[in-house]
């Protein structure tokens, strides 16, 4: 049984690593604050999973030094703070976020995790068992709130991939929160569930990674997935009389940047970018960014 769980940990770690790699490529392409923060959060989740793998290996297959329990617990607590804190920081500036509620709930869940860590360090097994259900209830409630917040918020219109990513992560988190609440309630009365040596946190980490991989694959299928400047055909440029500056704008659009981000990238005003886009739309006869990028894709060899 121990070897099966160890193998399961390895599978979870592999899935988490795939999610981190997908987010890293997306962030490189989009260069958006949100993609960077979610990359950071996913990396922390995978780090916590790796720590649990090492801990489980030492405890079950070799020897688990007692003095490492507090160290591993402390690192896990720190990673948990980074995960929840990083997610909150990512969502705070977005339209639709209830900032006061998110900040307050994040502080509460960090406190709950701190209480758990205190029980671990002091080896208060009885207190840990008594408080397990209330503390898990707080964490499940927070995850439900986090999921609902991610579903409600909206990212800048130009970042369609990020908007999809945040919404999908929200649904996954909300469903997991409801399922975990039921699990912890059932574990209160079914010892066989309480005896499982794998945390549900890592199931949601795998789910987040799956969504991240799906977002990356979805990005590849969108017209804006132009991977190199050379892929914008000279025939397209000649056909529509695209100027050098308009070509620069198109390349930034292909990365999924908003008008404001393009202006910052090219060192010009927001109004200038809007004017360039208007001229590009007039020349090509398209009505939107997506239509423009589909038009470009038709000229690829």
Automatic annotation (TrEMBL):
Query: Which key words tag this protein in UniProt?
Result: DNA-binding, Membrane, Transcription, Transcription regulation, Transmembrane, Transmembrane helix
What Pfam families does the entry give?
Answer: GerE
Q: Which GO terms describe its molecular function?
A: DNA binding
Q: Which residues form the HTH luxR-type domain?
A: 235-300
| GO BP annotations, alphabetical order | regulation of DNA-templated transcription
Q: Which domain of life does this protein belong to?
A: Bacteria
- Please name the InterPro entries in this protein's record: Sig_transdc_resp-reg_C-effctor, Tscrpt_reg_LuxR_C, WH-like_DNA-bd_sf
Metal-binding as a keyword of this entry, yes or no, is: no
Q: Which residues cross the membrane?
A: 6-26, 38-58, 70-94, 101-121, 133-151, 163-186, 198-217
| SMART domains given in the database record | HTH_LUXR (SM00421)
Q: What is this protein called?
A: HTH luxR-type domain-containing protein
